[in-house]
Design goal:
This protein is an all-alpha fold and 76 residues long. Helix content is 66%, strand content 0%. It is built from four helices and no strands.
Length: 76
């Protein structure tokens, strides 16, 4: 279950990505990660957002490629 803060962050970033023409799932993923106080595992993202593993995989790849997220322990 998502907290109110997580839902608000997700909705905000979904609106942002719609403006720039990026998939909704990328906004959802980024919003959840942004709202989290701790690093999230791949399966946590899948389960909390209830979106497919493929969407999460592609979304994380995109976010990594633009420098928006990094894997735990990965240097910038």
């Amino acid at each position: 279950m998502l907290t109110e803060f997580e839902r608000e962050c997700i909705e905000f970033f979904v609106q942002v990505v719609r403006v720039i023409g990026v998939q909704k799932s990328i906004g959802q993923i980024y919003g959840l990660i942004f709202a989290s106080k701790v690093p999230l595992a791949f399966t946590d993202i899948v389960n909390r957002l209830k979106i497919s593993k493929g969407s999460v995989s592609q979304g994380l790849q995109f976010l990594r490629s633009i420098g928006a997220v990094k894997a735990v322990g990965e240097k910038l």
